[in-house]
Structures are given as C-alpha cells and as structure tokens.
Write a structure and sequence with these properties.
The structure is a homodimer.
Chain A lengths: L2 E5 L8 H14 L4 E5 L5 H5 L11 H5 L8 E2 L7 E4 L4 H8 L9 H7 L7 E5 L6 H9 L2 E7 L2 H5 L1 H14 L5 E8 L6 H14 L12 H5 L7 H4 L4 H19 L1
Parallel strand pairs in A: 1-5, 1-6, 2-4, 2-5, 6-7
Antiparallel strand pairs in A: 3-4
The structure holds adenosine-5'-triphosphate (2 copies) and magnesium ion (2 copies).
Chain lengths: ~260, ~260
C-alpha cells in the first residue's frame, strides 16, 4: 500500500510544485519507488522533470474522465525509481466538465487505487485555489503536507487550509491527516520570517517540520533544466535541505 | 466611464494582490477616485488595506449572486479617494454555486456597471487558477495587467495567460486588451532574472512596462499593518517603484 501524500495550499506561489518535485526525487533516489502526479493544469511539475507537456499522447485529463487507463512515464534515464503522471492545459477543462460527472470529487482516488501496489510513495502536486481539482487531490490522499512561505499573506491563509482539510475529512475522506507544515523559501535574515516561524510553532507545535527549506536561486533555476535540485546541484543548500526533509517525511509516515 | 483594470495571472504567488493594492493606493493618492475589488476568496486584498473580512455585513459573494447591491467601503481615514469591495471565504462557494446561474461569467460585469460613473479607476484583484471567478474578472475588465515574477516557472505560464485573454476576447469580452506585463519581485543580481527580462522583451516588446517592481521586504511587511507601501514606508524602494508604475499605467490608459 503506497503512502499517498498531497502537497497542498490554496495560497499561490508558496512552493507546492518545488516541494512535490524535489521530495519525490529525494524519495526515489533513496531507493523508494515513487510516483509524482501533476494535478495542476499549469503543468509545472511535468516540465520541472523535463517532460514536454505538448507532446503527451495521454494526459491526466483523459485518465480522470475515464478515456484512458493511467500510464505513468518512467524517468529512469536521469532519475531512477521515479515515475510521473503528467498533465497539460486540458486539465483546466476538467474543472468545468467534471461538474456533471458521477463521483466528481473521487475521480483521482479511483485512478490511484489501480496503481497503489506498484509504488511506495505517491506525491500529488495540487493547483492553487479551492477547486474541484484541489478537492480531488485531498480526497485521494492519506496525508497532507502544507508548504508555507514565511510571509504574512501566506500565514493568513493557513486557517483556510486547515478548515478545508477538516471539511474534506468530514465529507469525502475520513482518513485524511495533516502530516505537517513545512516552511519554504526561508530567509532567516528578515525579522518577518522569524516572527512567522514563532507564530507557526505556537499554533501547530510538533506538526511543523524541523527542516526549513531555505531560499536559494539554484532551486528556482533547476526547473529550467528539467531537473530536481539533487541532480542539478547536488551540493547546494537546497539539495541538502530537501534530502533532510525527505528523511523527516519517511520517518513521519512510519510513525503516523 | 471608469478604466476597469484586471490584475491577472493564473500562476500563483506572482504579486497580483501586492500590485492591485499598491497600484490602487497610488492612483488614489494622486487624486483619482479608485475602487479596489477583491475577487479572491483568500481575501488578501481586503486584509492588506486593513479591513477585517470576518466582520463584514455584506460581501462580494452576496452582491455577485444578487442578494445585495454593491456597497463599497470608503478607506478615507488612511487612504483618501480609495474604496474597496471586500471579500471573504464565502466567495469560494460562488465557484460552485455560480455554475447554474444565468450569465454566470458576467455577474461581476453587471455589478460594476452600476458603479462605473462613481470612479475613475476600478482595480480587480483576481485569484490564481483558471476558474469562474477569474473568468468573471477578465469579462468585467477593459484592460488586463499581468504581473510576472522573473522566474522560469512563472515565464512558462505566460503562454497560458495570453491564450486565456484571447479566448475571453473571442467569446465574452470583445473589448478586452492587454495593457501590459509588469515584472515583480525583481532582484537584478541573479542571472536568471536577467535572462527572463530579455526573454520577455523579445516576446512582448513595448507591452512590458519599463518600471520593475523590485523585491523589498518592506512590501511583504506592509500587509501585516493593513497599509499600502506608500503609507507604510513612503521613502522605500517599493513605494518609489509603485508610484512610478502608477504613472506609467495612467499614461498607458490615456493612450490606449
Ligand atoms: N526554496 C526556494 N528558493 C528559491 N526559489 C524557490 C524556492 N521554492 C520555490 N521557489 C520558486 O518560487 C516560485 C514559486 O514556487 P512554486 O511554483 O513551486 O510554488 P507553487 O505553490 O507550486 O505555485 P502555484 O500556486 O502557482 O502552483 C517558483 O518560481 C520557484 O522556482
Ligand atoms: N516586490 C515584492 N517584494 C517582496 N515581496 C513581495 C513583493 N511583491 C509581493 N511580495 C510578497 O510575495 C508574496 C506573494 O505575493 P502576492 O500574494 O501579492 O501574490 P499573488 O499573485 O496575489 O498570490 P495568489 O496567487 O495567492 O493570489 C506575498 O507574501 C507578498 O507579500
Ligand atoms: Mg505549483
Ligand atoms: Mg493574491
């Protein structure tokens, strides 16, 4: 049975894709068969691992509406043990077309059930905003990791995020648990960042991961080369932080 | 007749709210009656001008579904000539409830028609993702300003943004024009930023605003005080950049 982890936060630009891609790559490189699922029509996770979303013969959109069976793409040439279910802009149509479908919130959950035995970890990248796609992602997952920037506007949105997780647990996915909150793009020099960290600790206590994912230009360059940070710059601060973070996630999944 | 400007980009966290709030504040402080409309259920623009979204007696949600007439809140105590139509998390429900309503894409357009004569500028902050709310925003506007971070993932999404604007122009709003693209959170020291700037110039030419909105911690601190940057730190690099940008916008609106 795979651990299915959603990387989710309605707030935009907080590092969901960067965390999904680099966590998946680190889990894969330490020997765990891992599937990355790109539930964002922007297809950022797809291009961040070097897959061209325009050339896809099948996409998540066709799989979710039942036209194709899921067919993960292996990335073994550069990233052993890593597969991806890629997406493209067609997925944006799912938002409006899902509306009248049977079981519209559980489409992804039933797609992943058929893949459950093949992988140890399935990492779901979700879009910003509360939408049918992000609801599908939370309904399919066992656990949620919430990336948060150490910024005021991102902190303000956290109460929405936890309220959404609770609503999904009550109505669609009773097993859904918050695995933890991880601070992204951390720059320890600013007073604002220190205040936000203290605030997070006060509200979420042990649910805040110890690893802070530091701000580093290398991390924002890596997607333009289609590589996760551990392949692009293995000795960089970003690679060390994501490797450490993936160890914490493995440990938290075993304990939960 | 007001100039109705949508601040829009499906990519999350690129500075839409920061640009909508600070542009509106600069237009207001140079004497133009300005209305800021918060079309994002996160309510970031609402809290960034110091309005408590939990205490609202009416909200944009009720106005859009026809329960209330629009009733802008004046912010004159701190920001003369500035009003806001605030929002709260109820607005997320509009996403699913609008679906069966008459004219679901034009709800905001008909709301603003009744306010058109009272303001010189109406600035619309939109949510990330392609959704009924962001489609409403583009259908209500005459012109669109697209904030872009000088980052690879943000650049990649630009083709989706221009495709969406073209689709809206063909089907829902024939007058919609791209006013321009503005670079946000600019940090000239990184090679990536320079490459992205060159790339933008090559594709969009004169449509790229000359002002670059520099990255500055003061800008991300200002929302926690409920103030735009020109009130929070009038002499900061962020305040100077947004003042300059608002002059460019006024000029571009007069020419278009
Ligand atoms: N630790 C980091 N250091 C530097 N840059 C980062 C870091 N994490 C993410 N970024 C950059 O910040 C931007 C936003 O990150 P990302 O796209 O992963 O966020 P997101 O939450 O997935 O956005 P969206 O809401 O659009 O899906 C990207 O350009 C990314 O490259
Ligand atoms: N020029 C800047 N310098 C420093 N920080 C900035 C700047 N512009 C925006 N920010 C900060 O970056 C974060 C993202 O900006 P903002 O929330 O305005 O983006 P957005 O596009 O509205 O996000 P969303 O997609 O969630 O609506 C915020 O924490 C904001 O305070
Ligand atoms: Mg993303
Ligand atoms: Mg915003």
């Amino acid at each position: 049975m795979a651990h299915i982890l959603a990387i989710s936060n309605q707030k935009g630009g907080v590092g969901k894709t960067t965390t999904a891609v680099n966590l998946a790559a680190c889990l894969a490189s330490s020997g765990h068969d891992t599937l990355l699922v790109d539930m964002d029509p922007q297809g950022n996770a797809t291009s961040a691992v070097g897959v061209n979303s325009r050339g896809l013969t099948t996409s998540l959109y066709r799989t979710l509406i039942g036209l194709d069976t899921p067919d993960p793409i292996a990335l073994h040439d550069r990233m052993p043990n890593l597969w991806i279910l890629p997406s493209n802009m067609d997925l944006a149509a799912a938002e409006l077309e899902f509306f009248d479908l049977e079981n519209r919130e559980r489409r992804l959950r039933s797609v992943l059930r058929s893949l459950d035995r093949e992988f140890e970890y399935i990492i779901l990248d979700s879009p910003p905003s509360l939408s049918l796609l992000s609801i599908n992602t939370l309904t399919a997952a066992d656990r949620v990791i919430v990336p948060v920037q150490a910024e005021f506007l991102a902190l303000e949105g956290l109460s929405h995020v936890t309220a959404t997780i609770n609503r999904i647990r009550q109505s669609l996915n009773p097993d859904l648990q918050l695995l933890g909150i991880v601070v992204t793009m951390f720059d320890g020099r600013t007073r604002l960042a220190q205040e936000v960290i203290q605030h997070l600790g006060a509200i979420f206590g042990p649910k805040v991961f110890k690893t802070r994912l530091v701000r580093s230009v290398r991390l924002s360059e890596a997607p333009s080369h289609g590589l996760p940070i551990i392949q692009y710059e293995p000795k960089s601060a970003g690679a060390i932080a994501y490797t450490q973070f993936s160890q914490e996630v493995i440990h938290a999944c075993e304990e939960a």
